[in-house]
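SEVERITY: medium
COMPONENT: batch folding queue
REPORTER: lab tech (J.R.)

DESCRIPTION
The queue accepted two submissions in a row. Attaching both inputs and their returned structure tokens so the on-call engineer can compare them side by side.

ATTACHMENT 1
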Amino acid sequence: MHITNWIQDNYIEIFGALTGIIYVFLEIRQNVWLWPVGIITSSVYIWVFFNGKLYADMSLQAYYLFISILGWYWWVRGSVKMGSAAENFSRRENIEPGGSSEKLRVTRLNIRTGIILFVVSIVLWFVLWAVLKSFTDSPVPAWDSSVTSLSIVATWMLARKIYEHWYLWVLVNLSAAALFFSRNLYPTVILYIVYCIMSFAGLIEWRKSLPGKHRLDFVPVDKDSLVITEKQKERSIS
């Protein structure tokens, strides 16, 4: 009876946790449907975090709604239209052909972008902390702000298909799980533990999509081909 009552009291949060797990599964698979599922999840958690007095995380969900629409567009349409080779050559570092448009592909984080994102995360943290400290009754303004600022950066990196966003999600998910535990949001704690585990799966899966030297390919070896190769070597020597 106690479990039934708990489910009835937290069914919205439980629903959000389930859609969140589906979201990360689709993210790992690089399935574009992760974005509409993310819209649903974010809508649910705006309500959940408002009731939990986690206002930075609540505002983060509003950002997720926006970036989900933008990411949906980027993943489906690509970053540029197909045009002349001279016009688009310098803008193709992270895009690949896909019909009448160019689709994003997985890329590595370059130093310049990494520095910019680091500075942005620090600025976001300070601004959010100042707002929460001065204008809300948040019991954990610094903690809440750190999770939110890093999540904003990681989500932008996801929208651009930057591989290293998975490392950031590992850090965010561990920190967020502890934060939500302190606020008695237990279904969400479970969700973020699952997120953390799935982040490692995402690292492995997305690495397969990296171009050239960044990718680790495990190609099965045919024993017969090895025999033929050795025979060819012997003939060439003789």
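ATTACHMENT 2
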Amino acid sequence: MQMSPFRRSNAQGGVTLIELLVSIAILGIITALLVTSWIALQNSYGHSVRSSNARGQARDALARASREIRDAQPLTLTSPLPPPFLLAQPTEIQFYSAFNNPGVRQDGSGTGALRKTRIYLDTGGSSAQKALIWQRDTNNSGGFDAGDRAIILATNVVNNSVANTNVTPSTSYTAIFTYTCRNASGDITASDTVGAADLGKIVAVQIHVIVDDNLAHAPAPADLQTTVRPRNVAGE
């Protein structure tokens, strides 16, 4: 019987060039999706942290402004009692204060420790986000200048960019300060601007701070409000 000679097959196991290219393409797509998702998560986390910090800073600013305005004092304790306020406008309030200074006493002595103080929105620059600033006449020059101490209470304040939804104040934007006044007849009115002759009629100040580090994206701005009744005004 004749036997057929044994033949070794020349076939080799493996992948073709086309299969390799397809695998590389799929791997590239998966890698791109993973990297894109990671970047999106990082951006979202960073925005959440910035937004949380801005909200916390705004709460601290509201608390500081409330304490200072509540403890505002008149420059003299004569009768009738003069107002502690010097200016009452939508984005700025000025008053006399000895906040954190024990020099002023109930008997009227030590009023030399009182200093002009203001809290105002710095509206300079083209950015929609502004800074809320506290400034005190620490060099006792009688006004506000570069030699005075100033502190940024809050950044990313967007009151100037948010339409006014209140009925009484007349500004097109949302005022930071709104003033409740009581006239001689006992009638109560609200306004975002009080003239010099009527500063003594202020019995309460509403503080409204809106912060947002990115107006074009969620989450919604932090909208913080409080009402302060000054302790040292006539009739209080």
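NOTES FROM REPORTER
The mean pLDDT is 83.
No errors were logged for either attachment.
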